[in-house]
Specification:
It is a single chain. The chain is of the alpha+beta class.
Length: about 230
Amino acid sequence: MDRRKRLGVGKVYAPTMYSVLLSPKDGDALGGFAETLGGELATYLLGYARERDYALAARPVVRFLIDDELKLGRFMVIGELLSPDEIAQELGEPEGAVHERVPAAAPEPQPRPAPQRTAVVPAVPDAEQHAGTARRAPEGASVTVPGLAHDVALEGERVVLGRLKTCDICVADANASREHAALEREGAGWAVVDLGSTNGTLVNGEPAQRVRLRDGDTVTIGTSELVYHEPRG
């Protein structure tokens, strides 16, 4: 990332596509773990870019390729600055598929449309049948969850985030732990607490064990970003 960065107008742009070349034997040894490892490395790269205020045209993607000329234990990494459309084409994804654009730093709070008043059980972004206990509501603190058309209201004293279907807010993210983090009521607001997750929890790109949240804060678990909203006055 550091070697391939490019200077723009007022910004430093970092590569978005990373190809890791391995020897055939190393590729065989990696096997089915390649996808998981690629996701973990992509999460690390996202945090690394934010620490250095690098701009990213898309969320980083890490893939593993075999190079017959490489010897056992040797590898090469090629970083390329590609757009979301170019990444989709490089990966051979269906026409029209694009990769999410992400800012290098935590986004500023944006005006939100008023949530609908019909209570709906939140769900995994790509599987609406998976239920949780947090519900949509017109008032009170809430979070924006990737893949949902409405904000999810925070109720009770504790809301668990993770990959398990039994979590209050379930995310379909292979890089998230089964019970990754929790939102806990703290005074008039909420705090996020890491639950010993494998990849850690970030608040505005910074590692967090327990952090009191403020309006507009971005909580990252795995590669999923949730935005916290204070109660509307």
